[in-house]
């Protein structure tokens, strides 16, 4: 079974978090699902550098000092993913979608309104648990 290592950015601006929608895929379970922007870690690349590079490529956005949030291991029918998420703060919402088909800026308690890729559910749940705790 193919294994991939992915980084994902929880991009926060004020109280809102950026959620992006993947385009059509041959795998129906990720096709047009919402996810956090990011992508595969390249050989010899640090996770921090991978997240900075992916966000620059995908959103034309510079982020600084990503802060580690969690790691999710998830088995999809055709591949296994290990995804490391990072909280990234920015001070403006000027992004350009180069790969995704929609963007939504949502408050943490609104994140359930979206149809997420399954691997993202533990991230959403942890964000909500920490938000409730304060
Ligand atoms: N970026 C990202 N990928 C995710 C998330 N959740 C999730 O299941 N994935 C899956 O992880 C994989 C990431 O691959 P990708 O296509 O984004 O990576 P990439 O930009 O490096 O792609 P490339 O292969 O075209 O160079 C996809 O299969 C995607 O569906 C998420 O929150 N963010």
UniProtKB/TrEMBL annotation:
It catalyses: 8-oxo-dGTP + H2O = 8-oxo-dGMP + diphosphate + H(+); 8-oxo-GTP + H2O = 8-oxo-GMP + diphosphate + H(+). GO terms for biological process: DNA repair; DNA replication. One of its GO terms (molecular function) is 8-oxo-7,8-dihydrodeoxyguanosine triphosphate pyrophosphatase activity. Keywords: DNA damage, DNA repair, DNA replication, Hydrolase, Magnesium, Metal-binding, Mutator protein. PROSITE patterns: NUDIX, NUDIX_BOX. It comes from the Bacteria. Its EC number is 3.6.1.55. Belongs to the Nudix hydrolase family. This is 8-oxo-dGTP diphosphatase.
């Amino acid at each position: 079974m193919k294994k991939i290592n992915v980084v994902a950015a929880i991009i926060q601006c004020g109280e809102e978090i950026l959620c992006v929608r993947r385009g059509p895929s041959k795998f129906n379970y990720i096709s047009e699902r919402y996810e956090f922007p990011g992508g595969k870690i390249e050989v010899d690349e640090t996770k921090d550098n991978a997240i900075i590079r992916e966000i620059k490529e995908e959103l034309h956005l510079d982020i600084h000092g990503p802060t580690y949030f969690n790691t999710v291991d998830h088995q999809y029918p055709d591949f296994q993913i290990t995804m490391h998420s990072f909280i990234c703060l920015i001070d403006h919402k000027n992004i350009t979608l180069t790969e995704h088909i929609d963007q939504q800026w949502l408050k943490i308690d609104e994140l359930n309104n979206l149809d997420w890729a399954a691997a993202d559910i533990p991230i959403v749940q942890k964000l909500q648990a920490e938000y409730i705790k304060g």
